[in-house]
Amino acid sequence: MNNQQSAVELNAIGKVFRSHTIFEDIDLTIPQGSITGISGPNGAGKSMLLRIICGLVQPTNGQVSVFGQRIGRDADFPARTGALIDAPGFVPNWSAEKNLRMLAEINGKVNAATVAEALSIVGLAENSHQPVRTFSVGMQKRLGIAQAILDKPDLLLLDEPTDSIDQDGWRGIYEYLIELKDKGTAILLTSNKLDEINILCDQAYLLKDKKLTPVPIQ
Protein backbone atom coordinates (compact mmCIF):
# COMPACT_ATOMS: atom_id res chain seq x y z
CA MET A 1 0.00 0.00 0.00
CA ASN A 2 2.90 2.36 0.64
CA ASN A 3 3.65 2.40 -3.09
CA GLN A 4 0.15 3.57 -4.00
CA GLN A 5 -0.49 7.16 -4.95
CA SER A 6 -2.46 9.13 -2.37
CA ALA A 7 -5.99 10.28 -3.12
CA VAL A 8 -6.43 12.19 0.15
CA GLU A 9 -3.90 13.78 2.50
CA LEU A 10 -4.95 15.27 5.84
CA ASN A 11 -2.26 17.14 7.72
CA ALA A 12 -2.74 18.31 11.33
CA ILE A 13 -6.48 18.82 10.92
CA GLY A 14 -8.25 20.35 13.89
CA LYS A 15 -11.82 21.55 14.32
CA VAL A 16 -13.26 23.78 17.02
CA PHE A 17 -17.01 24.35 16.98
CA ARG A 18 -18.68 26.75 19.43
CA SER A 19 -15.63 26.72 21.70
CA HIS A 20 -15.66 22.91 21.71
CA THR A 21 -12.66 21.05 20.27
CA ILE A 22 -14.06 18.20 18.19
CA PHE A 23 -10.69 16.81 17.14
CA GLU A 24 -7.11 17.96 16.78
CA ASP A 25 -3.93 17.07 14.90
CA ILE A 26 -5.60 14.57 12.56
CA ASP A 27 -3.20 13.06 10.02
CA LEU A 28 -4.56 10.63 7.44
CA THR A 29 -3.47 9.31 4.06
CA ILE A 30 -5.97 7.50 1.84
CA PRO A 31 -4.29 5.66 -1.05
CA GLN A 32 -5.96 5.20 -4.39
CA GLY A 33 -7.34 1.71 -4.84
CA SER A 34 -8.02 1.18 -1.15
CA ILE A 35 -10.83 1.24 1.40
CA THR A 36 -10.31 3.08 4.67
CA GLY A 37 -12.69 2.73 7.60
CA ILE A 38 -13.23 5.06 10.55
CA SER A 39 -15.17 3.98 13.62
CA GLY A 40 -15.86 5.82 16.85
CA PRO A 41 -18.55 6.84 19.31
CA ASN A 42 -21.42 9.11 18.32
CA GLY A 43 -20.36 12.74 18.46
CA ALA A 44 -16.67 11.97 17.96
CA GLY A 45 -16.65 13.91 14.68
CA LYS A 46 -16.68 11.19 12.00
CA SER A 47 -19.24 12.97 9.82
CA MET A 48 -17.52 16.31 10.43
CA LEU A 49 -14.27 14.87 9.11
CA LEU A 50 -15.99 13.78 5.89
CA ARG A 51 -17.53 17.24 5.51
CA ILE A 52 -14.08 18.80 5.87
CA ILE A 53 -12.67 16.55 3.13
CA CYS A 54 -15.57 17.57 0.88
CA GLY A 55 -14.99 21.27 1.52
CA LEU A 56 -18.43 21.65 3.10
CA VAL A 57 -16.82 22.68 6.40
CA GLN A 58 -13.51 24.48 6.85
CA PRO A 59 -11.06 23.07 9.39
CA THR A 60 -9.90 25.33 12.17
CA ASN A 61 -6.34 24.14 11.59
CA GLY A 62 -4.49 22.03 9.06
CA GLN A 63 -4.60 21.23 5.37
CA VAL A 64 -6.73 18.95 3.18
CA SER A 65 -5.50 17.81 -0.23
CA VAL A 66 -7.48 15.64 -2.64
CA PHE A 67 -5.73 14.41 -5.79
CA GLY A 68 -3.08 17.05 -5.23
CA GLN A 69 -5.51 19.96 -4.90
CA ARG A 70 -5.65 21.93 -1.67
CA ILE A 71 -9.32 22.11 -0.64
CA GLY A 72 -10.32 25.66 0.18
CA ARG A 73 -7.49 27.09 -1.90
CA ASP A 74 -7.22 25.25 -5.24
CA ALA A 75 -10.80 23.94 -5.17
CA ASP A 76 -13.91 24.47 -3.05
CA PHE A 77 -15.11 20.90 -3.60
CA PRO A 78 -12.83 18.01 -4.55
CA ALA A 79 -13.09 16.92 -8.16
CA ARG A 80 -13.98 13.33 -9.10
CA THR A 81 -15.61 12.79 -5.70
CA GLY A 82 -18.93 11.20 -4.74
CA ALA A 83 -20.29 11.51 -1.22
CA LEU A 84 -23.07 10.33 1.03
CA ILE A 85 -22.84 12.26 4.28
CA ASP A 86 -26.12 13.96 5.07
CA ALA A 87 -29.50 12.71 3.90
CA PRO A 88 -29.69 13.66 0.20
CA GLY A 89 -32.34 16.21 -0.73
CA PHE A 90 -34.49 14.02 -2.93
CA VAL A 91 -37.86 15.26 -4.16
CA PRO A 92 -40.26 12.98 -2.22
CA ASN A 93 -43.03 12.84 -4.82
CA TRP A 94 -40.65 11.96 -7.62
CA SER A 95 -39.57 8.41 -8.36
CA ALA A 96 -36.08 7.19 -7.56
CA GLU A 97 -35.27 7.16 -11.25
CA LYS A 98 -36.53 10.71 -11.82
CA ASN A 99 -34.51 12.01 -8.87
CA LEU A 100 -31.33 10.48 -10.25
CA ARG A 101 -32.11 11.63 -13.80
CA MET A 102 -32.44 15.18 -12.46
CA LEU A 103 -29.00 14.91 -10.85
CA ALA A 104 -27.62 13.45 -14.08
CA GLU A 105 -28.93 16.41 -16.05
CA ILE A 106 -27.20 18.80 -13.66
CA ASN A 107 -23.73 17.29 -14.09
CA GLY A 108 -24.24 16.51 -17.77
CA LYS A 109 -22.04 13.41 -17.62
CA VAL A 110 -24.51 10.65 -16.85
CA ASN A 111 -27.03 8.98 -19.16
CA ALA A 112 -30.14 6.86 -18.58
CA ALA A 113 -28.15 3.62 -18.71
CA THR A 114 -25.87 4.84 -15.92
CA VAL A 115 -28.88 5.78 -13.78
CA ALA A 116 -30.34 2.31 -14.30
CA GLU A 117 -26.99 0.71 -13.44
CA ALA A 118 -26.69 2.67 -10.19
CA LEU A 119 -30.21 1.69 -9.12
CA SER A 120 -29.48 -1.94 -9.92
CA ILE A 121 -26.23 -1.93 -7.94
CA VAL A 122 -28.01 -0.78 -4.76
CA GLY A 123 -30.94 -3.17 -5.29
CA LEU A 124 -33.58 -0.61 -6.27
CA ALA A 125 -34.19 -1.60 -9.89
CA GLU A 126 -37.64 -2.98 -9.07
CA ASN A 127 -38.52 0.17 -7.12
CA SER A 128 -37.12 2.68 -9.59
CA HIS A 129 -40.55 4.13 -10.51
CA GLN A 130 -41.81 4.27 -6.92
CA PRO A 131 -42.11 7.69 -5.22
CA VAL A 132 -39.27 8.28 -2.78
CA ARG A 133 -41.77 9.28 -0.08
CA THR A 134 -42.85 5.62 0.06
CA PHE A 135 -39.30 4.36 0.65
CA SER A 136 -38.20 2.90 3.96
CA VAL A 137 -35.18 4.41 5.71
CA GLY A 138 -33.01 1.62 4.33
CA MET A 139 -34.24 2.18 0.78
CA GLN A 140 -33.53 5.90 1.09
CA LYS A 141 -30.01 5.06 2.22
CA ARG A 142 -29.59 2.82 -0.84
CA LEU A 143 -30.76 5.66 -3.08
CA GLY A 144 -28.25 7.94 -1.40
CA ILE A 145 -25.48 5.50 -2.26
CA ALA A 146 -26.77 5.37 -5.85
CA GLN A 147 -26.44 9.14 -6.19
CA ALA A 148 -22.93 9.01 -4.69
CA ILE A 149 -21.72 6.47 -7.27
CA LEU A 150 -23.68 7.94 -10.19
CA ASP A 151 -20.72 9.77 -11.72
CA LYS A 152 -18.30 6.85 -11.15
CA PRO A 153 -16.06 8.89 -8.82
CA ASP A 154 -12.38 8.29 -8.13
CA LEU A 155 -12.96 9.13 -4.44
CA LEU A 156 -16.03 7.90 -2.60
CA LEU A 157 -16.95 9.16 0.88
CA LEU A 158 -19.68 7.22 2.68
CA ASP A 159 -21.08 7.95 6.14
CA GLU A 160 -22.52 4.75 7.69
CA PRO A 161 -23.34 3.36 4.20
CA THR A 162 -25.16 0.20 5.30
CA ASP A 163 -26.96 1.60 8.34
CA SER A 164 -30.65 0.54 8.16
CA ILE A 165 -29.98 -1.68 5.11
CA ASP A 166 -30.90 -5.36 5.28
CA GLN A 167 -28.45 -8.22 4.76
CA ASP A 168 -29.24 -8.79 1.09
CA GLY A 169 -28.73 -5.08 0.45
CA TRP A 170 -25.38 -4.70 2.15
CA ARG A 171 -23.95 -7.82 0.54
CA GLY A 172 -24.46 -6.32 -2.90
CA ILE A 173 -23.00 -3.01 -1.76
CA TYR A 174 -19.94 -4.75 -0.31
CA GLU A 175 -19.30 -6.52 -3.61
CA TYR A 176 -19.57 -3.27 -5.54
CA LEU A 177 -17.28 -1.34 -3.19
CA ILE A 178 -14.61 -4.03 -3.50
CA GLU A 179 -15.01 -3.94 -7.28
CA LEU A 180 -14.55 -0.14 -7.24
CA LYS A 181 -11.44 -0.49 -5.08
CA ASP A 182 -9.96 -3.02 -7.49
CA LYS A 183 -10.49 -0.51 -10.30
CA GLY A 184 -8.50 2.14 -8.40
CA THR A 185 -11.17 4.07 -6.52
CA ALA A 186 -10.27 5.39 -3.07
CA ILE A 187 -13.07 4.83 -0.56
CA LEU A 188 -13.42 6.30 2.92
CA LEU A 189 -16.33 5.08 5.01
CA THR A 190 -17.46 5.50 8.58
CA SER A 191 -18.93 2.49 10.35
CA ASN A 192 -19.31 1.08 13.83
CA LYS A 193 -19.83 -2.42 12.44
CA LEU A 194 -16.56 -4.20 13.15
CA ASP A 195 -17.44 -7.05 10.77
CA GLU A 196 -17.99 -4.51 8.00
CA ILE A 197 -14.61 -2.88 8.58
CA ASN A 198 -12.84 -6.24 8.73
CA ILE A 199 -14.49 -7.43 5.49
CA LEU A 200 -14.01 -4.26 3.46
CA CYS A 201 -11.13 -2.20 4.73
CA ASP A 202 -7.42 -2.16 3.99
CA GLN A 203 -6.79 0.22 6.87
CA ALA A 204 -8.92 1.27 9.83
CA TYR A 205 -8.91 4.02 12.44
CA LEU A 206 -10.69 4.87 15.66
CA LEU A 207 -11.78 8.48 16.16
CA LYS A 208 -12.11 8.98 19.89
CA ASP A 209 -11.11 11.59 22.47
CA LYS A 210 -10.25 14.08 19.71
CA LYS A 211 -7.63 11.76 18.16
CA LEU A 212 -7.51 9.44 15.15
CA THR A 213 -5.72 6.20 16.03
CA PRO A 214 -4.86 3.27 13.70
CA VAL A 215 -6.48 -0.03 14.65
CA PRO A 216 -5.62 -3.49 13.28
CA ILE A 217 -7.77 -5.23 10.70
CA GLN A 218 -8.77 -8.65 11.99
TrEMBL record:
Keyword ATP-binding annotated: yes
Molecular functions (GO terms): ATP binding; ATP hydrolysis activity
SUPFAM superfamilies: P-loop containing nucleoside triphosphate hydrolases (SSF52540)
Entries under Pfam families matching the protein: ABC_tran
InterPro entries membership: AAA+_ATPase (IPR003593), ABC_transporter-like_ATP-bd (IPR003439), ABC_transporter-like_CS (IPR017871), P-loop_NTPase (IPR027417)
Organism domain of life: Bacteria
Keywords annotated in UniProt: ATP-binding, Nucleotide-binding, Transport
Family: Belongs to the ABC transporter superfamily.
Name this polypeptide is given: ABC-2 type transport system ATP-binding protein
Organism classification: Bacteria, Bacillati, Chloroflexota, Anaerolineae, Anaerolineales
